[in-house]
Design brief:
The protein is mainly alpha-helical. It is built from 16 helices and three strands. It folds into three domains: 67 residues, lambda repressor-like DNA-binding domains (434 Repressor (Amino-terminal Domain), Orthogonal Bundle), CATH 1.10.260.40; 197 residues, no CATH class; 39 residues, no CATH class. The site of zinc ion has 6 residues, from helix 8 and helix 9.
Length: 348
């Protein structure tokens, strides 16, 4: 291994993903904490033996840490709810997403693929949503399966358990490959997940070079609302007076939460402030602000990444060496796709 190509950022990510402090890693390796500090600062390169121990500990092949051409930290992460999450937990979740995104980079490079997205070009969020629908050849109607639409356009959904119920998703845009990390712990309704995916997609499209402030959250919500239901199509559906039954039917049709539909109707001016407040009070008093009727919505399941992994395993001689993962690490990360036992691995 050419020691010059050691990538300290990858060591830091691997450590953070496992929730290890520098001190804990030093103890595991029986070395000084200051050494770990220096490795991660890039002022000292670990010995071959130490690299081997680190690789074994975190489940990588030694070559993993010698990829110095990876845009590991590019791609901003915005959180809708970051306040109550501890820094350690947040770092671990972000590190896991970045490490999964590295696999995606390898796979996309192998296939010569990029996400099918468009530049912002000073468009307002709503205009951007309309432009993207047009670019993806989507008519003005409801989007039946948002996950499939995103994946058809090579937006990757990184679906894993966050171990943090306060966080439902965030986005990484690495080299114009958009990866949306989604918490699949089952705590979020299908309509909320769809809104989150659109909200995060908006950040990738609209906010790559902006300072994260409050306005971007509103912009991402505006994009999501328009992308899921274009104004010109939903306006005629949002006419009041409407019965609760009709509202439920609308939710089933557009696969958007009732709360979002009411909010949208208010935004579009089809209901007055007073009526908006009255409906929201009704929703609260019946517990619908916390748990809405499902209206037949079912969770969407991503398949793109698992399919690519399967294909990669089938067509690549030594797939694990290419991905630079140990067998247990691979199996743990991709157990949803069946793990190695059910797949044909070149090495076997
Ligand atoms: Zn956001």
């Amino acid at each position: 291994m050419d020691q010059n190509h050691f990538n300290p950022a990858l060591l830091k990510l691997a450590r953070e993903e496992r929730g290890f402090s520098q001190k804990k890693l030093a103890q595991e390796l029986c070395i000084q904490q200051s050494s770990v500090c220096k490795y991660e600062a890039g002022v000292l390169i670990p010995s071959d033996d130490t690299i081997r121990s680190i690789s074994k500990l975190f489940g990588y092949q030694s070559t993993f840490f010698f990829q110095d051409d990876l845009p590991v930290y590019s791609g901003l992460i915005f959180h809708r709810k970051r306040t109550s999450l501890s820094a350690k937990k947040r770092m671990s979740i972000e590190a896991e997403a970045r490490l999964r995104a590295i696999d995606v980079l390898h796979l996309f490079k192998w296939k010569g693929m990029k996400s099918n997205i468009i530049p912002r070009e000073n468009r307002k969020p709503e205009e951007m949503a309309q432009a993207l629908r047009e670019h993806w050849n989507v008519n003005d109607g409801p989007i039946e399966n948002l996950t499939k639409l995103l994946e058809d356009n090579k937006i990757v959904i990184l679906s894993f358990k966050f171990d943090a119920e306060e966080l439902d998703g965030f986005v990484l845009n690495v080299d114009n490959i958009v990866c949306i990390a989604m918490n699949n712990d089952g705590g979020f309704s299908p309509d909320r997940q769809r809104f989150t995916m659109c909200h995060e997609l908006a950040h990738a499209l609209l906010h790559q070079n902006v300072f994260p402030d409050k306005t971007i959250e509103g912009e991402a919500d505006r994009f999501a609302a328009e992308f899921l239901a274009p104004r010109k199509a939903i306006e005629s559906d949002l006419v009041w007076p409407m019965t609760f039954e009709q509202l439920k039917q609308l939710k089933g049709k557009w696969k958007i939460s009732m709360a979002s539909l009411i909010y949208r109707a208010h935004k579009l001016g089809t209901i007055s402030d007073a009526i908006y407040r009255r409906i929201m009070m009704y929703m609260s008093s019946h517990g619908f602000r916390k748990h809405e009727p499902e209206c037949g919505l079912v969770p969407e399941t991503p398949t793109l990444l698992n399919n690519m992994i399967q294909e990669f395993l089938a067509e690549t001689q030594d797939a694990l060496s290419e991905l630079k993962l140990s067998e247990w690490r691979f199996n743990e990360r991709y157990k949803q796709s069946g793990g190695l036992s059910e797949m044909s691995v070149g090495k076997a």
